[in-house]
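Is this the right way to post structure tokens for a design question? Let me know if I should format differently. Anyway, here goes:
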């Protein structure tokens, strides 16, 4: 085999081999100067040195030591080097006695091999250090740059010159997560970011170095140093930070002119690669509300080995519940939806993530169709039905009252009746804060659904019923956050119905976990609600999203009031009768014990709605809803007293 062919096959790094030879010769010369030799002639010593060197280089070449990329290598680089050198030593001793060579004592040759190994490891570590920090514009950087040229030539320096074009970031958190981020960015030539320092609240770390980067104090005192270092962005790399502290730091650095990012897991990236990423500070995190904590052991044990049907499985909440359930080893999950695209995407996502090991089925059907739902019940015999299917868009339902009642009310009734007929053990329904004293047809239909479920729970049914009520879900289809993002991307304006309007918010994972947790602890007929903290002003969210985009409100992006839409009120209420609340084991989850109506009363109300639907007139249906849902009010009745409402007075401002 020719040298060129061998080099091409093994990808030998000749420059590194040259330095290894120099190190070896230096070690041999040092040992001879200390202990002398027993050689008969200089030629015998030369043959011995060459034979030993040949064994070392041969084993390193065969072991592909010179084909490894050291700058990205980990422990395995040095373990392979150690293994090849020990192998070379084992080859050398039989060769020595076979050829009758006399030289240094055997223990001295062992010491030579070990010192040579130490030198080889040292030069590789020095190369990695120089490669990482040899482009810094300081005296240490100049020395390291000179050494890097000595090690690898000018070409490596040219590769690293693009570092000056990378975005300079300060990592907030000099702990394990921050160190991992720094290591990833320093090792990745193609990364758009380069870390220049850490920021940490621990006074013991201040003034020290992590990964070769200085650690600065947390707070305003470090702002001048950040400016001198040319920091452009701050990256949060802290997992155990409380929300109030996060809010303070976010406001501090944003007001100082820095973009703020997060190094953390996100749902989307786990679905794709399961890896951490550097991402924008999400609007979810601007709420700075401690997320709900569920009893995972309780929830997982309940859903394990169960057949679970999720209606509306392709929606924001339904699909996330399927993702959560998939982690709990269920026997089978059936995602039912009338819209095929959502469940198709979910099916592909779960198939990729679980590699076909999850028993996940998709059914395209309407909850209003008794024939279709009956077929599904007979085919799968679910233990649990999670009912998330509903028309939820307030303005659209105001214009389509008949469809809202048929789908939300009678679709839910159809599912409940079939659950009773096919001996489903538990029915869990997703509700909304808009069902509390509703001012629109969507909220009124959801309140009617709660009434239906409560009446059936008190009728002696074998099904365990529960409803879970929560506020707006951040990032869901049709919610205000995606709308604002699109409007900002288009250059504005942001349209807002009323600057006074407030809403409760929670994240999609929170909402999904709440439903699953409440379903697991339900006894029968409970209406679960979440202490969602203070409501948020939508106007403040709009302002903050504009600033997050690096723009100025009213200068770059205008905010325009369009007026309240039909059925819309200025604030939402989360609870019907706060004096009836009961606590659960989770401090954030409460139970509103709603008094059930009789089945006779329920049938009368349903018949009123059926008669109204037969009229084929939206206003007749709207009037009928006011009869069957006594708390259904006009928006004017609620909005005229909005200023007096506790929710409006306690609304939290997002800085």
């Amino acid at each position: 085999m020719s040298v060129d062919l061998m080099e091409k096959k093994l990808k030998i790094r000749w420059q590194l081999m040259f330095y290894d030879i120099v190190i070896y010769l230096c070690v041999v010369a040092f040992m001879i100067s200390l202990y002398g030799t027993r050689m008969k002639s200089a030629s015998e010593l030369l043959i011995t040195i060459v034979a030993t060197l040949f064994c070392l280089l041969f084993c390193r070449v065969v072991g592909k030591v010179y084909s490894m990329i050291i700058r990205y290598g980990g422990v395995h680089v040095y373990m392979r080097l150690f293994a090849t050198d020990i192998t070379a030593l084992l080859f050398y001793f039989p060769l020595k006695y076979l050829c009758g060579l006399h030289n240094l004592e055997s223990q001295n040759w062992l010491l030579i091999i070990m010192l040579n190994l130490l030198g080889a490891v040292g030069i590789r570590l020095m190369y990695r250090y120089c490669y990482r920090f040899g482009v810094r514009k300081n005296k240490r950087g100049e020395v390291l740059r000179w050494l890097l040229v000595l090690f690898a030539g000018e070409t490596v320096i040219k590769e690293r010159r693009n570092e000056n074009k990378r975005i300079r970031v300060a990592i907030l958190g000099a702990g394990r997560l921050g160190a991992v981020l720094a290591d990833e960015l320093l090792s990745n030539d193609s990364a758009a970011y380069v870390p220049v320092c850490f920021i940490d609240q621990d006074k013991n770390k201040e003034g020290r170095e992590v990964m070769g980067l200085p650690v600065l104090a947390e707070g305003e005192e470090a702002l001048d140093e950040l400016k001198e270092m040319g920091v452009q962005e701050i990256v949060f790399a802290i997992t155990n930070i409380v929300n109030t502290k996060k809010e303070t730091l976010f406001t501090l650095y944003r007001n100082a002119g820095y973009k703020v990012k997060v190094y953390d897991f996100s749902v989307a990236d786990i679905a794709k690669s399961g890896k951490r990423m550097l991402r924008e500070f999400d609007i979810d995190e601007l709420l700075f509300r401690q997320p709900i904590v569920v009893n995972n052991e309780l929830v997982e044990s309940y859903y394990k080995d169960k057949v679970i049907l999720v209606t509306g499985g392709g929606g924001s909440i339904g699909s996330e519940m399927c993702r959560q359930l998939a982690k709990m080893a269920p026997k089978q999950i059936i995602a039912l939806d009338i819209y095929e695209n959502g469940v198709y995407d979910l099916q592909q996502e779960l198939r990729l993530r679980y590699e076909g090991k999850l028993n996940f089925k998709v059914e395209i059907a309407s909850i209003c169709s008794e024939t279709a739902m009956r077929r599904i019940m007979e085919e799968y015999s679910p233990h649990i039905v999670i009912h998330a299917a509903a028309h939820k868009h307030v303005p659209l339902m105001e214009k389509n009252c008949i469809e809202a009642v048929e789908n939300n009310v009678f679709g839910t009734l159809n599912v409940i009746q079939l659950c009773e007929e096919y001996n489903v053990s538990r029915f869990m329904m997703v509700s909304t804060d808009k069902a509390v004293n509703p001012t629109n047809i969507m909220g009124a239909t959801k309140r009617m659904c709660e009434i239906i479920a409560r009446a059936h729970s008190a009728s002696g049914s074998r099904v365990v019923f529960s409803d879970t009520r929560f506020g707006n879900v951040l990032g869901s289809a049709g919610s205000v956050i995606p709308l604002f993002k699109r409007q900002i991307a288009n250059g504005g304006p942001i349209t807002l119905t009323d600057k006074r309007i407030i809403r409760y918010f929670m994240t999609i994972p929170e909402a999904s976990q709440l439903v699953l947790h409440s379903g697991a602890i339900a006894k029968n007929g409970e209406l679960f609600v979440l202490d969602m903290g203070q409501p948020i002003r939508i106007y403040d969210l709009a302002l903050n999203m504009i600033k997050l985009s690096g723009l100025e409100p009213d200068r770059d992006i205008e905010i325009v009031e369009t007026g309240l839409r039909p059925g819309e009120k200025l604030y939402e209420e989360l609870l019907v009768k706060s004096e009836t609340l009961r606590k659960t084991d989770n401090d954030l989850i409460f139970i509103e014990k709603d008094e059930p109506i009789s089945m006779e009363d329920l049938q009368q109300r349903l018949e009123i709605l059926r008669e109204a639907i037969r009229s084929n007139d939206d206003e007749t249906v709207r009037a009928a809803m006011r009869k069957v849902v006594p708390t259904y009010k006009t928006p004017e009745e609620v909005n005229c007293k909005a200023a007096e409402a506790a929710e409006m007075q306690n609304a939290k401002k997002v800085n």
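Format looks fine. Someone answered above. Worth noting: Residues 166-281 form a domain with the Rossmann fold fold (CATH 3.40.50.720). The CA atoms of residues 352 and 538 lie 37 Å apart.
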